[in-house]
Write a structure and sequence with these properties.
The structure holds two protein chains of two kinds. By secondary structure, chain A is α/β, with parallel strands linked by helices. Chain A has two domains: about 35-60 and about 80-90 and about 175-315, P-loop containing nucleotide triphosphate hydrolases (Rossmann fold, 3-Layer(aba) Sandwich); about 100-170, no CATH class. Chain A is about 30% helix and about 25% strand. An eight-stranded mixed sheet of chain A has the order 6-7-8-3-9-10-12-11, with helices on both faces. In chain A, helix 4 packs parallel to helix 7. The radius of gyration of chain A is 20 Å and the shape is globular. Chain B is globular, with a radius of gyration of 21 Å. The longest helix of chain B is centred in the middle third of the chain and has 18 residues, at about 200-220. Chain B contains twelve helices and twelve strands. Helices cover about 30% and strands about 20% of the residues of chain B. In chain B, strand 7, helix 8 (about 200-220) and strand 8 (about 220-225) form a beta-alpha-beta unit. The chains are: A alpha/beta, B alpha/beta. The structure holds adenosine-5'-triphosphate (2 copies) and magnesium ion (MG) (2 copies). Chain B: Keywords: ATP-binding, Cell inner membrane, Cell membrane, Hydrolase, Membrane, Nucleotide-binding, Repeat, Translocase, Transport. Chain B: The complex is composed of two ATP-binding proteins (GsiA), two transmembrane proteins (GsiC and GsiD) and a solute-binding protein (GsiB). Chain B: Part of the ABC transporter complex GsiABCD involved in glutathione import. Responsible for energy coupling to the transport system.
């Protein structure tokens, strides 16, 4: 047993069906208690699947999982039935990318939070309802008393996200998985929610994995960043290291695709091409076909993992070269 | 063959010429009833959209920004007739909805890409069938062919994606399906409600380049709702700022970027995430809760959170009017109206 909050080793996830999708390929990742990590990466890179695997949410018949996941010493992949239900929403909970997935349209939001508290903590209906009210207050929902009795469709997108955060935190999890919970929010609310999550994270001492594709958001929320591509982690380090000296060409491309100070109509600096199909397990660098720095060796075999400092890694042949300042 | 013919883009013809706005909205209102009590009686009204007016020229892109719950999506849904308006006029290329324009004709001309990419796709339809559906409803020939070409156009390889179901796609991939699906209906106006929010920056850049290309190719007009000001700045010709169901500022991009005339707009612009790990945001630029839209504040609705409020702001509703330096830059704030009675009236927003 480890003292780590999260310890993922050599995780691979494949979806079977008409076509096989190698969604996660040999991912290892660890987190200390109370740490905040941003999982940054392109659409389809496997961020959501990583979180779903951590929560034991993948359809067992259609997915094949290799490797191991421990959360607080619990072997997640071996959990079944009641133990899994207790783990989900108790030890670990998740705020989803799309509220439609988490909130049930036929129950009021208060009822849904209270039910979750009752299930996990075994408290009375009234107590559970007052926890729900307290949680809506904590996520700064105006007139929480009234909103308790609202159905999800009666709330705006931003409020639904806050309700989801309230639902996720109601049972005081050790680990919060947040899947782009602020992407649909306007700037003022986004920054409020990021600050709120920062506060609640400190207050509850929980660890947070925050999935985002927005580097600005990662900067605001997390101490550490892991960059994902094609189901692999390409680079990991502190937020400062990634922002200031991102070494992987993909990380550098992401930083360049930023819209800060771009004139209207000007063509954007998109990384050309699309991510790979993931129909087979990668046997070379998955980014090579799009990479401005690719060498013939890049497709010949998996890139070496360079570790320039403790808890800092880069999967690129050329990462050892000095970074050219612009 | 032009790219236009290639994907079978076949919109309804332009009737009023280039000078006539493609869409004109006047005094649009939507109140949602709030029911309660044992009999489920209407006890109050949420003033979701309250007297919104604007127009969008042909080929123009109007960006809409504003706090969560301020009525952006409701405005969008009113525009496509998905939500029924209580009051106001919707005039599409000179024809008023409910008079010379039927709901069916409006929907032929205006398509929407929704905030929640899941909710709008039929989970039991393949991606190809979903995209082809619109074209088939329109009675266009070879709907599957069109669907595949459009999928290709939005960067989803048909060979890989045509036969997948919505749950087998990532959020960003689903959003591109939604864009293809909207285009399959050959609309003249596309309303994009947080359409790129689920995309990572690199794909977002590709989709924005795509939207720009489609605009150039097809002469499309966009209404672009997004919380990301950098995106709105990039894609829009003008930006409209909403607060609590009302328009507080509308201006050409360069003008509003240089100077936010409304105090709310100013807070909104300073809420952009910092890109500096050593200088993270410490306090939200707007404090206080957004007021309850059931009982919005009197006078200027922003006065409860405004640093520059004076007595007049609590009683008198400011009117949207052009700035003296630039009539195209419109703002609803007493600070800019020399006759408003605000002690600092006519001096603009203090720094
Ligand atoms: N149930 C499933 N069956 C088959 N393939 C799937 C399934 N779920 C996800 N995938 C595929 O796995 C890959 C990773 O998907 P995932 O949802 O993790 O992406 P993501 O990084 O969260 O992207 P986004 O930022 O767009 O949400 C994608 O190629 C996706 O199409
Ligand atoms: N069907 C409905 N019934 C009752 N109230 C509603 C309904 N739809 C929206 N509202 C309310 O109307 C107001 C405006 O909601 P709307 O969804 O238009 O906001 P928005 O600006 O799109 O917000 P967001 O940025 O969070 O998506 C909110 O107070 C919301 O709770
Ligand atoms: Mg995802
Ligand atoms: Mg909305």
């Amino acid at each position: 047993m480890t003292g780590k909050l999260v310890d993922i080793r050599n995780l691979s996830v494949r979806f079977k069906g008409k076509r096989t999708v190698h969604a996660i390929n040999d991912v290892s990742l660890s987190m200390e208690q109370g740490e905040t990590l941003a999982l940054l990466g392109e659409s389809g890179s496997g961020k959501s699947v990583t979180l779903k695997t951590l929560l034991g949410l993948l359809p067992p018949k259609r997915s094949e999982i290799d490797g191991s996941i421990h959360v607080n010493g619990v072997d997640v992949l071996s959990l079944r039935g009641k133990a899994l239900a207790k783990y989900r929403g108790g030890e670990v909970s998740m705020v989803f990318q799309e509220p439609a997935l988490a909130l049930d349209p036929v129950f009021t939001v208060g009822h849904q939070i209270a039910e979750s508290v009752r299930r996990h903590k075994g408290v009375s209906r009234d107590e559970a309802m007052s926890v729900a009210l307290d949680m809506l207050d904590r996520v700064r929902i105006p007139s929480a008393n009234r909103r308790l009795h609202n159905y999800p469709h009666e709330l705006s997108g931003g409020m639904r996200q806050r309700v989801m955060i309230a639902l996720a935190l109601a049972c005081r999890p050790r680990l919060l998985l947040a899947d782009e919970p602020t992407t649909a929010l306007d700037a003022t609310v986004q920054i409020q929610i990021l600050l709120l999550l920062r506060e609640l994270q400190k207050e509850f001492g929980m660890g947070v994995i925050f999935v985002t594709h927005d580097i600005g958001v990662a900067v605001e929320i997390s101490e550490r960043v892991a960059v994902m591509y094609a189901g692999q982690i390409f680079e990991e380090g502190t937020t400062r290291e990634i922002i200031r000296e991102g070494r992987h060409p993909y990380t550098q491309g992401l930083l360049a695709a930023n819209l800060h100070d771009v004139e209207q109509g000007q063509r954007l600096n998109a990384i050309p091409g699309a991510p790979p199909a993931l129909e087979s397990k990668p046997d070379g660098c998955s980014f090579a076909p799009r990479c401005p720095k690719a060498l013939p060796e890049c497709t010949a075999g998996l890139p070496p993992m360079l570790m320039p400092a403790p808890r800092r890694r880069v999967a690129c042949i050329r990462a050892g070269e000095p970074v050219v300042a612009e | 063959m032009s790219a236009t013919e290639d994907v079978g883009y076949d919109p309804t013809p332009d009737t009023g010429g280039p000078a006539q706005p493609l869409i004109k909205v006047q005094n649009l209102k939507k109140y949602f009833p709030v029911r309660g009590g044992p009999l489920g009686r209407v006890q109050a009204q949420v003033q979701a959209v309250d007297g919104v007016s604007f127009d969008v020229a042909k080929g123009e892109t109007l960006g809409i920004v504003g706090e969560s719950g301020c009525g952006k999506s409701t405005t969008a849904k009113l525009l496509i007739g998905l939500t029924e308006r209580d009051q106001g006029d919707i005039i599409f290329d000179g024809l008023a909805l409910g008079e010379k324009l039927s709901l069916k004709d409006l929907r032929r001309g205006v398509q929407m890409v929704f905030q929640d990419s899941y909710a709008t796709l039929n989970p039991r339809m393949t991606i190809e069938a979903s995209v082809a559906f619109g074209a088939r409803v329109q009675g266009l020939d070879k709907p599957e062919d069109r669907a595949r070409k459009l999928m290709d156009r939005v960067g989803l390889d048909p060979a890989r994606f045509a036969h997948r179901y919505p749950h087998e796609l990532s959020g960003g991939q689903r959003q591109r399906v939604n864009i293809a699906r909207a285009l399959a209906m050959s609309p003249r106006l596309v309303v994009l409600d947080e359409a790129v929010s689920a995309l990572d920056k690199s794909v977002e850049a590709q989709v924005l380049n795509l939207l720009n290309d489609l605009r150039a190719e097809f002469g499309l007009t966009y209404i672009f709702i997004s919380h990301d000001l950098n995106v709105v700045r990039y894609i829009s010709d003008r930006i409209l700022v909403m607060y609590l169901g009302e328009v507080v500022e509308v201006a050409p991009v360069a003008s509003i970027w240089a100077e936010q005339a409304h105090p709310y707009t100013r807070s909104l612009f300073s809420a952009m995430p910092s890109m500096d790990p050593d200088n993270r945001t410490k306090e939200p630029p707007l404090s206080g809760d957004p007021p309850n839209p059931i009982n919005p504040p009197s006078g200027c609705r922003f006065h409860t959170r405004c640093r520059f409020k004076a007595d007049v702001c609590k009683t008198k509703t400011p009117k949207l009017a052009g700035l003296s330096v630039n009539a195209k830059h419109m703002v609803a704030c007493h600070l800019h109206d020399a006759d408003s009675g605000h002690p600092k009236a006519g001096q603009g927003v203090p720094s």
